[in-house]
Amino acid sequence: FRLALIQLHVSAVKSDNLQRACGLVREASAEGAKLVALPECFNSPYGTQYFKEYAEKIPGESTQKLSEVAKECSIYLIGGRSIPEEDGGKLYNTCTVFGPDGALLAKHRKVHLFDINVPGKIQFKESETLSPGNSFSMFDTPYCKVGLGICYDMRFAEMAQIYSQKGCQLLIYPGAFNMTTGPAHWELLQRGRAVDNQLYVATVSPARDEKASYVAWGHSTVVNPWGEVIAKAGAEETVVYTDIDLKTLAEIRQQIPILSQKRCDLYGVEMKK
Questions:
Q1: 56 among known catalytic residues
Q2: Which residue among the candidates 22, 41, 151, 168 is catalytic per the annotation?
Q3: Mind listing the domains of the chain with CATH numbers?
């Protein structure tokens, strides 16, 4: 099946971002994509100073637009971190998934908050405004089962292992790595998660905006279960297409059967809730 990653240029005007995102979703559908993903923070600038201003409840304006375009195009639509979600007085970094009938299939709240300090390069603390999610998020399609993470979640190998154990064959991480962590770890982490778990990994970033207060690395990518990069964007706004071949996945798992050779009598990773 065909997967499309929309590397969107994000402005400070929510309505413009929504309109352009929906237009590119329609374009991807016309090109045969059955599963389409938007980047982290696609409807607002990325930064702790913006989260409260742009926050919405779910359902709300942004998610309603995503539901409508998913139904119109009869596709599975992953809404990136569609919005900073407001719920019960707290804010969450939330990704929504809609099915071909427009129904909400999954809602992933970012589990690991991006609190880092690389001296002289970047300091960022999502926990100043956001609360963490407390659950894994998976959804079924006629093609395969998909697991979701958001950006920093990708650094935690245990999360990907749980998804693999639960039968996921594709992991999708809407993310916005920056100009420090992007060149260092963006592709490396994707290839690691793919090889460790013998599945496809896709990441979808906003396009790079050098004038933004937080500059995203871009380079939305798809990696196959052999650890090969099979599709990759540059820094500009674009749509990345790739065909996900589950026959290849099955062949790789048969050739090097690590999933059945794990020593569960010696070690294990488990989902607690």
A1: no
A2: 151
A3: 2-258 (3.60.110.10)
